[in-house]
Amino acid sequence: MAAKLSVLTLVKNREGHLANLVRGLERAEVQPDELIVVDMGSDRPVVVQTTAFAANVIRLEGQALPLAAARNMAAARATGDHLLFLDVDCIPGRTLPGVMDAALAQRDGLICAEVRYLGPDDAEGDWTEADLLFAGMPHPVRPFPVEGMRMESNYGLFWSLAFGIRARTFESLGGFDEAFTGYGAEDTDFGFRTEQAGISLLFLGGACAFHQHHATYDPPLQHFEDIIRNAGIFYGRWMRWPMDGWLRAFSERGLVSWSEDRLEILRRPLASEIADTLVA
């Protein structure tokens, strides 16, 4: 019996982005057997409208972004042997589900798909994949092969935007560690635990996802408390700091005292400081 492919995504108040993700899956050469959506307390409960494949929406109440717990919940509900995790901002290219499914049949690894970044209006209206390919910009420090898979030795480059893994392997790793609550470091920890377990990190060519533009904060001061807490958990486990660019930015603003082995909050960011970091 052929392995089943489950696509998993998390959403909080990004209905338009989710609709584009679903549209991408509907246009795929190989459609998934199911889509699992975890709604992390959206203001309006999420509804997925598609007849192309089964869609299951799970509501997870709360005001925070429980990313680790939500990904684990999605995986627990999935029935597929192969899991494709997609950030809700990612529109899958038409070849991505099929290429990832075939890659997981070939290799028992942690497989990252290429993500190309779109501008503010690139996924508006009745877009085509040709439009997205023309507009999408590759990541500057994550080179992907044109086709096939290549081994990546730096597990710090794992990203959770678009990746595949066998369901049994995900379960053997214990999923994402729910000690990391809210935003930050849970994906880097997952990558490091994958390396510790001797599982290959692979970069997949021949398929990609397109990251839809959204307003962001640089640095993400709106997640200040989560980042500091999760950075401390990560350091206690791995004896190195994650998210060092953000921690450096916090230190330069006088928010934290940060050294090789110590991180301490000096003050919380003001609402005006958070607003000033917004990048439209």
From TrEMBL:
Keywords: Glycosyltransferase, Transferase. Gene3D superfamilies: Spore Coat Polysaccharide Biosynthesis Protein SpsA, Chain A (3.90.550.10). GO terms for molecular function: glycosyltransferase activity. The keyword Transferase applies. Pfam families: Glyco_transf_7C, Glycos_transf_2. Residues 151-203 form the Galactosyltransferase C-terminal domain. Residues 6-129 form the Glycosyltransferase 2-like domain. PANTHER family: GALACTOFURANOSYLTRANSFERASE GLFT2 (PTHR43179:SF12), RHAMNOSYLTRANSFERASE WBBL (PTHR43179). Belongs to the glycosyltransferase 2 family. This is Glycosyltransferase family 2 protein.
